[in-house]
Amino acid sequence: MSIKGVIEARCPKGCEAFEAEIWSFIHGDKSPELREAVAAKECNLLVCPECQGLFFAEAPYIYFEPAADILAFVFPESFRAEEERWRRKMAEDFISLKKALGGKMPLDTEPELFFGLDDIAALLNAEAYRAEEVEVMEAVAAELGLCLYRVRRGFARRLGIPASLPYAPARKGEVVTRANMIAGLQKLLAANDRLTAYQSYLDGLRASAEQALPPARV
Ligand SMILES: [Zn+2]
Asked: What angle do CA 22, 84, 45 make, to 5 degrees?
């Protein structure tokens, strides 16, 4: 679940400081409305009680979305000048967080450092776009009777490939192979040629005979 904290907020216009509640830990899977706020660059937006001006809290927060392998340490834009310092802080906090979350954190989740509003919002919006393409693909694959191979989300993101891939077993019960994945992708693209991420992945697979399949989601 998501957690709030209290900070002493200072309006950039120099008004009197005030106490404000902000989100310090956001669980994107469990709090979709907060995921939307981060994606819309509205998270931890405060209203000054004196001048009614809007400004963002000068406080870091953690954005966690285990289903997508996202663990983001988000620092205010003004912290960027001291990136190395905050990178060290992130490494320390990551160790404490791992202990606090116990087995709830996927073991291969890598923490990522963000500053300001734009980059974390861009990541979440790009993930939403990719998820839509996967949804369309899975609907087409179901119609065509193709099997699905689900890739670890963080791995797919780093490689820029779809997180769910179709394959066409040559006989019943055949496991996924490079060859039956190429066959599955060809059938998919023959039925729907707008799935551009799948065309790119097929081109890459064909271009390199040694290319191994990406690791499966567990
Ligand atoms: Zn103010």
From this structure: 20
